Amino acid sequence: MGVAAINTGSIHTFQSRSGARKFPRIEFPAQVEIDGVLYPTKEWSVGGFSIDDNLYPGKKGDKHHGHLCFELPVGRFSTPMQFEVMRASETGYAMGCQFYSLNSGHQKTLQSIVDTYLTGETISLESVTSYGVKAQLHEEEVKRMQQNWWRFALVALISAAIIAVAALMVQSRILNVTSAHAAVSQPVLTQRSYNNGVLRLGDFKPGQRVNKGDLLFSVFTEEGTDLLAKDRQELNNINSQINYFQTLLRQTEESVARYNSRLFKELKLLTEKQELMRQELATREQILRLYNNGVRKGSVDSVSRELERLETFEIKRALLTMEAEMEAIENQLDQILIGVPPKEAQIGTKSPFEAQSQLNILISKKDKILEEIERLKTRGLAYAPCDCYIVAINATDGQVVQTGSSIFELSPVSNAERTERSILALMPLEKAELLKIGMPVEYKLASNDKKLIGTIEHVQFYSAANADIYNDDGESLSGLPKTLPRLQQYTLIKVTPSPEDEQSIVNEPATVIATIGWKDVFKHWFNL
């Protein structure tokens, strides 16, 4: 810190009617800052100051506040003060002022400057601040913090909110599995026209219940015989395809089983080989330590030691390669476990799951054609195949229809009160193992913001390459989009809706969220 040179000047001890002043005034250069304007002082003391006439307007008894400032080589130093005008000129200007309510720290600061000046010592910034300025600044800081307590409270609330939002984001990312696509679905049986002709409908309406064997419609045609022959030919083709896919499924399952067994054997051999190589590595490292001692003693040359070190590195490299092979085998085993075997394990281009799905579809088609043939034998009469609700009627009485035209869409009755509706949802494939049958899930329909609770009834692999979905009875399930990328793969879950859900509409979009427990997440992590 620099120091301020002391200007020589007189020391005045002014007399008053009551005797000497309490504080001696000095002529050390100082300025009074009031409302941003600087006024030079004539003299000042710990008790007050005087200024020239015609500088600052004021009358006796006026109270003001400002700063007492000193210009030092290292910078400007100021201290706050409050003062009262004690002496004023006849023209209305302040001439003598007295401090009041002066902080003890500020008073000590001013006293230190006076004492230093009177003793003839140099005045430095360090000596000024050592007499109470730090205490005064601390008091002001405490006061400022007390006045601004609400700001700290606001910061604390914002911090708590940020922490809460971050926790919710972590929970939503790790614990919540959200569907990519979901919709209300129900088993639908489509009753089509078996002939070309004029349609004759009974008195039916959507939502009406029909019993198995009820006559739904009839189509009068002369082409029934030809259509019957066509259906029989298609039945033969389907039987041939069923035989093919049954053989393919058996061969593919056997191939996957053999491949799986071979992978287990390879993994076992690699594990044993890895253990032997680790033992060999330990021995080589022990020999290398002996070589190091021998080199230091001079009994072994450094070339032999480096050759031994090279052998050690070769073993470590082989271990790393072996670990990569084992990891690749484990990945293939995991693929087989979730039903998506690698191409090397399959015969042809279809996996066992794809072959089984195609076989189920063909069997369902076969059953429908057999039913069609039976109906054709009754000259175009169409009967209800089950106790069903009429979902939709796609034609009118007297309309000319073509073969294959959809006339009725029917939904089988699960009980006497409602149809067997469900929620079909496509979930991320990578979290398939966390979704279990019987797990409760939350879902929300597009028509209602109310959150409902359902239960996972079925879990399976889903590929957009085969978008048709059937239940165990061979009935198609509607609801999912038909325009997904063919290479996209999902985990398909079927959710039993909440008993409170009585107003859901077939094909209505929905959002399904499965909340996974931390316990299941940890189990999944540690099992990987």
Q: Can you describe this structure?
A:
This is Alginate biosynthesis protein Alg44. Keywords: Membrane, Transmembrane, Transmembrane helix. The chain is an alpha+beta fold. The protein has 3 domains: 3-147, predicted glycosyltransferase like domains (Thrombin, subunit H), CATH 2.40.10; 179-186 and 419-527, Beta Barrel (Elongation Factor Tu (Ef-tu), domain 3), CATH 2.40.30.170; 222-367, Helix Hairpins (Orthogonal Bundle). The protein has 8 helices and 28 strands. Strands 13-28-24-25-27-23-14 form a 7-stranded antiparallel sheet. Helix 1 runs antiparallel to helix 3 (133-147), helix 5 packs antiparallel against helix 6 (302-337) and helix 5 (224-297) runs antiparallel to helix 7 (352-377). The chain is elongated, with a radius of gyration of 48 Å. The two termini are 66 Å apart.
The number of helical runs is 8
The largest pleated sheet is described as:
7 strands, antiparallel
Shape summary: elongated
- The strand count comes to 28
Order of strands across the main sheet: 13-28-24-25-27-23-14
- Given as residue ranges, the uncertain stretches (5+ residues, pLDDT < 50) are 1-20
Broad structural category: alpha+beta
Report how far apart the termini are. 66 Å
Q: How many domains is the backbone divided into?
A: 3
In the CATH hierarchy, the architecture of the largest domain is Orthogonal Bundle
- Radius of gyration in whole Å, from Cα? 48 Å
Mean pLDDT: 75
Q: Name the helicity range.
A: 25-40%
Question: Which CATH class of the largest domain?
Answer: Mainly Alpha
At the third CATH level, what is the topology name of the largest domain?
Helix Hairpins
Note the beta-strand portion: 25-35%
